[in-house]
Amino acid sequence: ICDPKLKILNVCARFPGSSHDSFIWNNSNAHTFMVNLHERGHRSFFLLGDSGYPLRSYLLTPCNDAVPDSPEDRYNIAQRRIRSIIERCNGVLKLRFRCLLKHRMLHYSPEKSSKIINAATVLHNMCIDANLPNVVEEPGDLDLDFGMYEADINLHMLQGRNPLNEGRRQRNYIIRTRFQ
């Protein structure tokens, strides 16, 4: 999770790189925080995710099969534009710390790799705070993998609530009030 200035606000580096994004999300402190925030009635806070994440009232994903120039399409365009910030942030982080690039895997234990990723995140944020320029990309440097995966079943589904419907209501409200 990052802000518009590419400062990383939350990282979860506890799982191997082959883990699905939705699995990491469902097991992250940020997920628990967002669930608790919404359960306490603070429903004006949400994050944006790609279609590899489950739609929830606190995690908004794109609309499937949006008709061109419809409110849903305008929402998707805005959502994609904002989501590109995290992709740019990941790219800048990997250029600053090239050991994080896809083909330069960290050949350490998961625990040590996690510490390296967390340290790189802290140093990246220090670079942002110090207004240091981003590293210039060289041809062939970035081979980023922003793969999309099927979302895992959320435990709330099993507890009688329907968080997917809650997410649809939240997303539809935003589309109705901001993209008509």
From TrEMBL:
Domain DDE Tnp4: 1-125
Keywords assigned: Hydrolase, Metal-binding, Nuclease, Nucleus
A GO cellular-component term linked to this record: nucleus
One Pfam family recorded for the sequence: DDE_Tnp_4
Cofactor(s) recorded in Swiss-Prot or TrEMBL: a divalent metal cation
Main location: nucleus
Any GO MF annotation of the entry: hydrolase activity
InterPro entries in the cross-refs: HARBI1-like, HARBI1_dom
Subcellular compartments: Nucleus
Keyword Metal-binding: yes
Family affiliation: Belongs to the HARBI1 family.
Name of the protein in its database record: DDE Tnp4 domain-containing protein
